[in-house]
Amino acid sequence: MFLPGDAAMAFLASLAACVVAGRFAIPLLRRAQWVAPVRYEDCPPLMEYQEAKQKTPTMGGLFLLAAAVAAAAASGGLAHRNGWVVLGTVLAFGLVGVVDDVLKFRGTNAIGLRSVPKLSAALAIGAVIGLMTMSGPHSSSAVEIPWANRSVELGWAWVPFAMLVISGCAHAVNLTDGMDGLAAGCAAIVFIVLGVWAMVGEPHQQALAPWCIALAGACVGFLWFNSFPASVFMGDVGALGLGGAMGAISLLTRTSAWLAIIGGVFVLEALSVMLQVASYKWRGKQRIFRVAPIHHHFHLGGVSEPKVIVRFWIVGLMLGLVGLATAGGR
Questions:
Q1: More confidently predicted of 329 and 106
Q2: At what angle do helices 61-74 and 209-226 cross, to 10 degrees?
Q3: Fewer C-beta neighbours within 10 Å, C or N terminus of the chain?
């Protein structure tokens, strides 16, 4: 059993490992000139925003994920099959993120992986995770319905559902990673809530608690460098890795539907992009927001970046507490 004391140790170990690794990794990233290129040529306000940050190195997600994996493994996270599923998900999405980030270094206007290959890779990983969670001991193809105190068995619809959850989580976290510390702070909250649920769940779900707590600790440790003004960005390797892990853990703990609540910030960010694209395409290039994702909408409306970040953290914390307070039937 993973006890509260074990959770505290795993959290602190992951946090410390991330801070120590960052001290060595960030100078290396800076010397390698792994700096994300300017991407907002079609939006002058955001062009100016990114130019102010263009000397900040990226791909900090490499040491973030490494710290989380090491702490989770040391805390017993690989003692159960489900832990290996999470590890495989982190590594798979981390690899996609590395390719995406590295391709952006090819030149000034390089854009990394195109949306179709990136989405296809995410869906493929989701399909594999869906099939793996349907087979073997403690297999599951059910999802809990928030506040209904019941689960719905999806059968073979579980695989496309897993594809949607995994790819959706990965891309939502990636879209949220647009301001200093925004994605890391919100992800830490979600992982802590998932960790609490895992600790009070069935034995095979409790095996995922080390992963939840280690990922949360690594996110908090990453904020040591990524908080405003950021010394490093996590890059796609970090955002996709965290999002993929979040989706996989929710599937394995049957809490995927709860992500719409406790991960409401990520849902809002993704929805704002989808609505903006749909409106621009189908309403004669009319926009709903000043710019999407929605954190930039508020920023361009005059709210300072640190205030937008902290307010989103507060909303994320409130949603996480709503999930914990109302999920009494779990």
A1: 106
A2: 150
A3: N
Selection from 110, 15, 13, 14 nearest residue 58 by Cα: 110
Looking at this protein, which amino acid is placed at residue 91? L
DSSP assignments along 252-269, one per residue: HTT-GGGHHHHTHHHHHH
Phi, psi at residue 42, to the nearest 5°? -90, 5
The whole-chain average pLDDT of the chain stands at 92
Token code pair at residue 140: 């599951």
What is the CA angle 132-136-139, rounded to 5? 75
Alpha carbons 174 and 83: distance in angstroms, whole number: 23
151: left (phi over 0), alpha (psi -120 to 50) or beta: beta
pLDDT in tens, 189-207: 999 999 999 999 888 899 9
**Boundaries of every domain in the chain:** 4-326
Tokens found for residue 242: 């965290």
Between CA 218 and CA 69 the distance in angstroms is: 9
CA distance 74 to 214: 10
Structure tokens, 264? 């409401």
For 300, the 3-state DSSP assignment is helix
Q: Which amino acid is at 215?
A: L
φ, ψ of residue 220 to 5 degrees: the values are -65, -40
H or E element in which residue 153 lies: strand 150-153
